[in-house]
Amino acid sequence: MSKKLLLCLISLAAILFLLTGCSQEEFPAGKSIVTEYRDQKLTIYFNADGTFQFVWPDRGGLATDGTYSVEGNKLTFESDSTCEEQGHPGHTYEWKITDDQIAFEPVGDDPCFDRLGTMGKGRVWIIEP
Fold first, then answer.
1. What is the rounded distance in angstroms from the CA atom of residue 86 to the CA atom of residue 18?
2. Buried-most residue among 26, 75, 76, 86 (CB within 10 A)?
């Protein structure tokens, strides 16, 4: 094997290793995520079409809904019916997945108290299969 070919193969392997090792977990669009909030189960459905619903399964009701977008590790609530009623625009959160859990941290101050309280700094959400 020539030195050039060997060097090309090693370079290609290194690039693939770096790309694979640095890849970001995929946002769980199309899945539901669940947490405990005020001693009750709360579920968020992030639909693949860019819509979401916060649902209280035990109460049988919709808490809020709207639209979202994801870019890299940033989730932006583009619209949120509850927060819009309170006069607050959408807001961006950073997300991080560890195993079957996802955590969110607001980027700056989220003026919507309900969303901030629900998303919760440090709150752990379980990604359901």
1. 45
2. 75
C-alpha–C-alpha distance, residues 80 and 67, integer Å? 7
Residue 24 to residue 95: CA distance in whole angstroms: 11
Digit-coded pLDDT (tens) for 58-97? 888 999 999 999 999 999 999 999 999 999 989 999 999 9
| Runs of H (alpha helix) within 22-129 | 81-85, 113-119
Minimal CA–CA distance to 122: which of 86, 98, 89, 91? Answer: 98
Residues whose CB falls within 8 Å of the CB of residue 104, separated by 6 or more in sequence, listed in order: 75, 93, 94, 95, 119, 120, 123, 125
pTM reported for the whole predicted model: 0.77
